[in-house]
From TrEMBL, chain A:
<keyword id="KW-0732">Signal</keyword>
<keyword id="KW-0408">Iron</keyword>
<dbReference type="InterPro" id="IPR036909">
    <property type="entry name" value="Cyt_c-like_dom_sf"/>
</dbReference>
<keyword id="KW-1133">Transmembrane helix</keyword>
<keyword id="KW-0349">Heme</keyword>
<feature type="domain" description="Cytochrome c">
    <location>
        <begin position="45"/>
        <end position="128"/>
    </location>
</feature>
<dbReference type="Pfam" id="PF13442">
    <property type="entry name" value="Cytochrome_CBB3"/>
</dbReference>
<feature type="transmembrane region" description="Helical">
    <location>
        <begin position="271"/>
        <end position="293"/>
    </location>
</feature>
<dbReference type="InterPro" id="IPR009056">
    <property type="entry name" value="Cyt_c-like_dom"/>
</dbReference>
Automatic annotation (TrEMBL), chain B:
<dbReference type="GO" id="GO:0046872">
    <property type="term" value="F:metal ion binding"/>
</dbReference>
<dbReference type="InterPro" id="IPR017896">
    <property type="entry name" value="4Fe4S_Fe-S-bd"/>
</dbReference>
<dbReference type="InterPro" id="IPR006311">
    <property type="entry name" value="TAT_signal"/>
</dbReference>
<keyword id="KW-0411">Iron-sulfur</keyword>
<keyword id="KW-0408">Iron</keyword>
<keyword id="KW-0479">Metal-binding</keyword>
<protein>
    <submittedName>
        <fullName>Molybdopterin-containing oxidoreductase family iron-sulfur binding subunit</fullName>
    </submittedName>
</protein>
<dbReference type="InterPro" id="IPR017900">
    <property type="entry name" value="4Fe4S_Fe_S_CS"/>
</dbReference>
<dbReference type="GO" id="GO:0051539">
    <property type="term" value="F:4 iron, 4 sulfur cluster binding"/>
</dbReference>
Length: 306, 311
């Protein structure tokens, strides 16, 4: 009996030891760095900002937290950043590693701002089973609702967009949903341009108002494809509204080939080239004809002399 | 249909005849090929393919041909015209480049280039004795006032309405005037039979990708014009692991990062980071913008081709 306990204990130790070794992979983090605390609170706003930044910069390699769908890189695959054995580290440790990078993990010291990095850490902490209790979960409590609707109002005169998020409570009343982040996206050739501004969270009525940039080009009529959606699908599932709005600056695309230029098409050659060329050809041919003409005249001339 | 039947009957004929002729030792090259074809056909090797509507079908391997979407005429015509209403630009953030060279290999794959041929090349730069070195990817600048197209005697290289400068390898006579004219050394010449020439010899020539490459003609970066048609980012832009490249449409004032997929305002990106173009004093008006290697995300760690530095 004692032996088995000993064995189990030994196994356990080995397991922990090897685990920490595999985890460490030679990442030595100075003690001073480990002590750093996240200066930002784990508010739902910060967590959702962190999620956005995570999806932009980390997801491509690390996959979704807790899902373990990271890129299968060799020799060391990226860690699942939502896994508990990663989250046992202190905020400072994670922050240090994000900053410094190692091997295939790039350094983010200069590519992501400090604030953004702490937001990502706040987001990752939301998966931490041990610290979850301490976290302030959603400060704003929305009632449980069904039939969530997203309405969009466009004011073309002063270029504003008003989105309203509402749902039906159990009592059958339609209420606004508060504190939910929305994304206002403009379709461009290769992606969506985010024009949500600083604070795209719904107010207590469920409204959020966004000023469309005054100088963003649209098509000839100033139309742009707009996509408004609830940023995080986790709350109410996928909610979005796509619409063509006339808020852009009407832009006539210039065709560089319309310009008369030497590199342009033949039809649009510069005038001076056409004139010189045609003039040159005419001049040469007229000289030739002149000579021929004179030569025809020669025998006549000879005859008349006779 | 008619052609197929006549082909089939020829095959049948060869199958019964060619083999016996071959066995008789009279091996003309023609009958050899015919026999090989017939022999290959005999144990019909089947492959599984997924059709467009999601069905799994079995197809005789001998029937497989590379897909040809458009006939040559159509490809040539639309390749010359370009995509209306667009004005493509690229932004390269030098502060993020750490010589990963993924752009180069993606480009070489796309355009069937050998490892020593570059449409885009990552250069090791040091502007003066006491300045810091940095890495600089350099594709064709797709100049708005291109010296290269002006010197072409046969109108083989040209600019399109969306700003892209292309080469028609079907027209190019290989005089290499354009190579001499380009101040950015963006063009390469196919001195030898291109890579995989045999494999791609039946492929319809696509002017928007310069494939298949042709011996004795010039080739260069095309901003992956064929991918742009499908609203995909150029190969190099999507291949970069470090977020160096932005690509987009200047008419829309937006560029998209190939790594993070983030779309930003082009004018703001250039303004905030003091973006510049290469050798603007020449008046070539490049469409490739550089952001200075300030506040570098990766230390410059020495020799360009040192294995250890290839991340
Ligand atoms: S970089 Fe060279 S090849 Fe490209 S457009 Fe300019 S001059 Fe022509
Ligand atoms: S090498 Fe070809 S593309 Fe270049 S100038 Fe000569 S013909 Fe034109």
């Amino acid at each position: 009996m004692k032996n088995t306990i000993k064995n189990i204990a030994a196994l356990f130790l080995i397991f922990i030891f090897s685990g920490s070794l595999a985890n460490a992979q030679g990442w030595t983090v100075p003690n001073s760095a480990k002590k750093k605390q996240n200066p930002y609170e784990a508010t739902s706003k910060n967590v959702s900002t962190g999620k956005k930044i995570y999806n932009l910069h980390c997801k491509s390699c690390h996959g979704d937290p807790t899902i373990a769908n990271m890129l299968p890189l060799a020799p060391v695959a990226p860690t699942d950043l939502g896994a508990q054995n990663f989250l046992v580290q202190s905020d400072g440790e994670i922050y240090y590693k994000v900053n410094k990078g190692q091997g295939a993990m790039p350094t983010f010291e200069k590519t992501i701002s400090d604030e953004d990095k702490w937001m990502v850490i706040a987001f990752l902490r939301s998966f931490d089973k041990n610290k979850k209790v301490k976290q302030q979960v959603a400060e704003v409590k929305n009632p449980e609702v069904t039939d969530v609707k997203l309405e969009l109002n466009v004011n073309e005169a002063n270029k504003t967009l008003l989105a309203k998020l509402s749902g039906v409570t159990k009592k059958g009343k339609r209420v606004g949903l508060q504190g939910i982040e929305m994304s206002f996206l403009v379709k461009r050739s290769f992606g969506y341009l985010d024009v949500s501004g600083e604070d795209p969270y719904t107010n207590e009525k469920g409204d959020v108002k966004v000023q469309f940039p005054a100088d963003l080009p649209g098509d000839r009529e100033g139309q742009v494809n707009m996509l408004v959606k609830v940023t995080d699908d986790d709350f109410y599932g996928k909610l979005e509204e796509a619409r063509v709005v006339t808020l852009g600056v009407p832009t006539d695309p210039v065709n560089p080939l319309d310009e008369r230029a030497m590199w342009g098409t033949r039809a649009n050659a510069p005038i001076w080239i056409i004139v010189t060329f045609v003039g040159g050809v005419l001049a040469i041919w007229s000289v030739i004809f002149l000579v021929l003409f004179q030569m025809i005249k020669l025998p006549k001339l000879a005859k008349s002399k006779d | 249909m008619k052609e197929e039947t006549s082909n089939n009957s020829r095959r049948k004929f060869l199958k019964s005849f060619g083999i016996s002729v071959g066995a008789a030792g009279v091996v003309s090259s023609f009958s050899l090929i015919g026999a090989a074809k017939a022999a290959a056909k005999k144990p019909a090797e089947m492959v599984n393919l997924l059709t467009q509507d999601g069905q799994l079908v079995q197809v005789d391997k001998n029937q497989l041909r590379p897909t040809v979407n458009e006939p040559l005429d159509e490809l040539q015509k639309r390749g010359r015209e370009g995509i209306p209403g667009k004005s493509f630009v690229m932004v390269i953030d030098l502060s993020k480049c750490r010589n990963a060279r993924k752009c180069m290999s993606a480009c070489q794959n796309h355009h069937q280039l050998r490892a020593d041929q570059h449409h885009i090349n990552v250069l090791q730069m040091q502007d003066a004795d006491h300045t810091a070195p940095y890495f600089m990817p350099k594709p064709c600048q797709h100049c708005d006032n291109p010296p290269c197209t002006k010197v072409c005697p046969v109108d083989a290289t040209f600019k399109r309405q969306d700003g892209i400068v292309l080469i028609d390898n079907e027209r190019c006579i290989g005089c290499r005037f354009c190579i001499a004219a380009c101040p950015y050394s963006a063009r390469i010449f196919q001195w030898t039979e291109p890579k995989d020439a045999e494999k791609y010899k039946d492929l319809t020539y696509n002017i928007e990708a310069n494939v298949p490459q042709k011996k004795g003609t010039v080739s260069k970066c095309l901003f992956s014009a064929d991918r742009l048609r499908e609203d995909k980012l150029p190969s190099c832009v999507s291949a970069c692991p470090n977020g160096v490249y932005y690509f987009g449409d200047r008419n829309e004032d937006a560029v998209t990062n190939g790594t993070s997929g983030e779309t930003v305002r082009f004018s703001k990106l250039i303004e905030d980071n003091a973006g510049y173009t290469l050798m603007e004093e020449l008046g070539t008006k490049p469409r490739v913008y550089y952001l200075p290697p300030k506040n570098r995300a990766f230390e410059f760690n020495g020799d360009l081709l040192n294995e250890e530095n290839l991340h």
